[in-house]
Fold these 2 entries.
Entry 1:
Amino acid sequence: DIVMTQSPFSLAVSEGEMVTINCKSSQSLLSSGNQKNYLAWYQQKPGQSPKLLIYYASTRQSGVPDRFIGSGSGTDFTLTISDVQAEDLADYYCLQHYSYHTFGAGTKLELK
Amino acid sequence: EVKLVESGGGLVQPGRSLKLSCAASGFNFNDYWMGWVRQAPGKGLEWIGEINKDSSTINYTPSLKDKFTISRDNAQNTLYLQMSKLGSEDTAIYYCARAPGLRRDYWGQGVMVTVSS
């Protein structure tokens, strides 16, 4: 089974700052067939369903602001949020779907 | 408009079974893999399992394999989750999702299941 280690558990930020959230997988998520990393990032606000932000590690979902940037390959991945806005305060999860599916433990983004 | 509407949740006694449904509309249901995810109160997301377009492949998180059964009825555009021998640890919001993690990703609003005597 692939284990996803997500860090940090929580993050306190001020509006306008940049934040990074990391996910490390216990094995590579890169497909040799199509050279895509099977890693997605989700945002979840209180009382709402998760919302897909990034798929294939770095492709932004339609309608997602360009301050959300996904990067990484293989086993190490990062979600960067530049110029954090109040509306970005939420929980963030990574999801691997290279071999079955596994979520990271989540990162809570809070206001400083 | 794409819609996924979960139903069948509620209060259930420990040890009992419950079957959740997820009614799909606004897209060709039989073109998509579908999955179930749950979230215990105040906790993170937990993957339950997924089913392919024609039900020939069903995958489960190993630790939940003996408790849950996923099925679908493409004629009725409905996804199901059969849950058995429920315990307090199964108290959660249960979400159905279309093609999770991919461009066509879409989630329902979730349904609450509370296991308590």
Entry 2:
Amino acid sequence: GESVGLHLPTLSVQEGDNSIINCAYSNSASDYFIWYKQESGKGPQFIIDIRSNMDKRQGQRVTVLLNKTVKHLSLQIAATQPGDSAVYFCAEAMDSSYKLIFGSGTRLLVRP
Amino acid sequence: DGGITQSPKYLFRKEGQNVTLSCEQNLNHDAMYWYRQDPGQGLRLIYYSQIVNDFQKGDIAEGYSVSREKKESFPLTVTSAQKNPTAFYLCASTPRGDLPYGYTFGSGTRLTVV
């Protein structure tokens, strides 16, 4: 069975509520930030990204907020659904590099 | 459909054995990557290849080896020198090897030492 995320912080929300998942990133020089969703036994899927010259970006039911002052990234999911249950990772990178630096992830559990 | 295919999905290795994990992409991406994922941790880079016939060590390359003879393929061998190989292994690719955009991940291989 799937063992990724056994020791991860967990956010439990009621179906239909909004979810906010937080991430502290490490490099003040990072130019680019991404949120990934990883379901059990699968690879990460791209959700949304944001560049360092932006504070906010919206997608379908998701919003990413970037606070460069405190090196904080958040993912907001509106009207959370059971299919949103997964592990969510943030990642950061510099434009000059191929390399993504991943956070350790947060497990989102949606209660019916 | 374009994508990355990893095989097998599950793999069991005996102590002292070498095993090879397959990664194939039909996205025409230049760069390919191997990551290791352990419980409670983010993805850690094992090896990467920015172009055919070239590859570099990542952060945790010890006990692993790779080859990049074709653009589409980037197999990872877990050798007997890797002391704790039980983990979830993810392959990824990007269109260009010098920029962090457009990462596509495979569905992973779970390796267990028995």
